[in-house]
Design goal:
Blueprint lengths: L2 E2 L5 E5 L2 E4 L3 E4 L7 E4 L4 E2 L19 H13 L4 H14 L4 H4 L1
Antiparallel strand pairs: 1-4, 2-3, 3-6, 4-5
InterPro entries: Phage_CGC-2007_Cje0229
Pfam families: DUF1353 (PF07087)
Protein name: Phage tail protein
């Protein structure tokens, strides 16, 4: 099962722009052989959600860690795009994000 093992430590740069302040990891397997590591200095906007929906789904919601991983994968094109979305879904599931927010 996938897991996050550290908190996402970030500093806010401005209006919904954040810089990763400490290395952040998401393990994709129980044995921790497949890992996505977001380095210090990576900049993210967290979850890209239209402003009209922010009262229900704020960019910095409970899915923020999964959003950082998703942004990092898209930024560096490290895997297949379809896989990015599956990893994002997996991250939200691990974080306990309700199903209605994951779809």
């Amino acid at each position: 099962m996938s897991c996050f093992t550290t908190p996402a430590i970030m500093e806010m740069l401005g209006h919904y722009r954040w810089r990763v302040y400490e290395t952040f990891r998401f393990y994709l397997s129980k044995d921790k052989n497949d890992v996505i590591e977001v380095p210090v200095g990576f900049i993210t906007d967290l979850a890209t959600i239209p402003r009209i929906f922010w009262s229900l789904l704020p960019p910095d919601g409970e899915y923020a860690k999964a959003a950082i991983i998703h942004d990092y994968l898209y930024h560096y094109s490290l895997r297949d795009r379809k896989e990015y979305d599956l990893i994002f879904l997996d991250g939200m599931t691990v974080l306990g994000v309700p199903k209605w927010k994951r779809t």
